[in-house]
Specification:
Elements: H1 3-17, H2 38-53, E1 59-66, E2 69-80, E3 85-86, E4 93-94, H3 100-112, E5 134-137, E6 144-147, H4 155-160, H5 174-181, H6 191-199, H7 216-228, H8 232-241, H9 255-258, E7 297-298, H10 300-311, E8 315-316, E9 319-320, H11 324-330, H12 343-349, E10 360-362, E11 367-369, E12 384-387, E13 393-397, E14 402-407, H13 412-428
Antiparallel strand pairs: 1-2, 1-14, 2-3, 4-7, 5-6, 8-9, 10-11, 11-12, 12-13, 13-14
Helix pairs in contact: 2-13, 3-7, 6-7
Length: 432
């Protein structure tokens, strides 16, 4: 038996036989106690370890919780394939846009304290946004016509992505091109600097008229800073992750944490890691830009505690961040009837897209399922979810008192497949 075969067998033995207890969540004695079939849960390992063996993914971690306890928590494959380092249940992942729900919770905490009015103009907190204009493309013209907004962008617009802002890379409109030229994604800038840049760019849409996934949540992060008087990482640490016992959810890591960060595998065509997944070095020093839209790293167990807090109506282990009514507001569909969705991002999101055709809308920080049927993926009306461009994914199903967290680091082109397969594998094993 050669060395690589021995390493692979050892990695599989460690990852398949070890079911750890997640931080602060009790482990179910038998999956059947939580309504799951032990036999059917084995299919999860068959699929994910099978894809590891075929070289399609380096590794993954999947955690399922139901009724407040954990019937399934497994790691598969490699945390770093070239280094032959096995994946562990406490491996740390770049969670990208799964940062957005934490920033949204921060906003809602300040709203509960009477410090933020969700219906107020954004310019009430960020005066730079007072004179924003909307970019309108005229037929046959290569220049934008600038128009005054019909109404002001509100904090609610930022939370539900109807602000008129964009990202710049899901389309090629003149506004998208202006975003690209503005060099917005610079790590050493501050949130204040980002907001200043955005204030000089035209909006892609009239506020409230189009659902366009965007830098809205980064702007929310700046509002948190202005209103609280704390930089965003401090607010999230002191008000959210420390109280919830989420020690590995952070914008930058220690040397000890860096050793636990999961790496994507090399693209055989280029010999490079995916461009959508920043290198570990980007997280080993404190960044200037604390991206409330995509800057955090986390573990499956950390993020499961955050999800359990949401599922519990804003509280876990005696620590309450939000009221049940606030959670109900956040997990309701906030998109007006008939509002169009940006085609580019809808195409990219696939079954995650908040469209009526899929029976889904968008709340204050994540997508929500509004109807049974229509969507090819299993779930329940009222479940809410979001994902990261790096391959991370979560959903919370209040009807089933269930949550699941998938941690994986794969190129963007592979993400939707694993989001779909995770849902299928979890629900097929739920038998009562």
């Amino acid at each position: 038996m050669n060395q690589s075969s021995i390493i692979r067998i050892a990695a599989v033995a460690v990852c398949m036989s070890f079911q750890a207890s997640p931080q602060g969540l009790p482990t179910t004695r038998k999956p059947e106690d939580a309504g799951f079939s032990s036999e059917r849960l084995k299919r999860i390992a068959q699929v994910f370890q099978g894809d590891v063996d075929k070289g399609q993914i380096p590794g993954a971690v999947l955690l399922i919780a139901r009724n407040g306890s954990v019937p399934y928590f497994q790691a598969f494959g490699f945390q770093d394939r070239p280094q032959h380092l096995p994946m562990k249940t406490d491996s740390i992942f770049r969670i990208a846009s799964m940062t957005k729900p934490l920033t949204s919770v921060a906003i809602m905490m300040l709203a509960e304290e009477g410090k933020i009015d969700l219906g107020a103009p954004v310019s009430q907190y960020l005066p730079e946004f007072k004179d924003l204009k909307v970019g309108v493309e005229k037929a046959g013209s290569k220049e934008l016509s600038l128009e005054a907004p019909a109404r002001a962008m509100t904090v609610q617009d930022l939370l539900r992505h109807t602000s008129g802002l964009t990202y710049g890379f899901f389309g090629n409109s003149l506004v998208d091109q202006a975003y690209v030229k503005a060099n917005l994604f610079v790590r050493d800038q501050t949130l204040a600097g980002l907001v200043t840049k955005l204030s000089k760019l035209p909006l892609a849409h009239q506020p409230g008229t189009v659902w366009e996934y965007s830098l809205s949540t980064d702007v929310l992060g700046r509002i948190v800073e202005v209103v609280s008087g704390m930089v965003l990482d401090r607010f999230i640490r002191e008000r959210i992750t420390q109280p919830l016992k989420m020690p590995d959810t952070t914008f930058y890591v220690t040397a000890q944490q860096a050793a636990r960060m999961a790496e994507p595998q090399m693209d055989p065509a280029t010999g490079q890691r995916p461009s959508t997944i920043p290198p570990i070095q980007a997280f080993t020093t404190k960044p200037g830009w604390m991206s409330g839209g995509g800057g955090l790293v986390s573990t499956a167990s950390d993020y499961a505690r955050f999800c359990q807090m949401l599922l519990n109506g804003g509280e876990i282990d005696g620590v309450r961040l939000l009221s049940p009514k606030t959670i109900a507001l956040m997990t309701s569909d906030h998109l007006p009837p008939g509002i169009p969705r940006s085609p580019g991002i809808v195409s990219a999101l696939g079954e995650l897209a908040p469209t009526p055709e899929l029976g889904q809308g968008f709340g204050l920080g994540f997508a929500v399922r509004t109807q049974a049927g229509r969507n090819p993926l299993p779930g329940s009306p009222g479940d809410f979810f979001w994902a990261g461009i790096t391959g991370t994914y979560f959903w919370v199903d209040p009807k089933e008192k269930l949550l699941a967290v998938l941690m994986i680091q794969v190129p963007f082109a592979q993400t939707n497949h694993y989001f779909r397969i995770a849902r299928e594998l979890v629900y097929q094993a739920l038998i009562r």
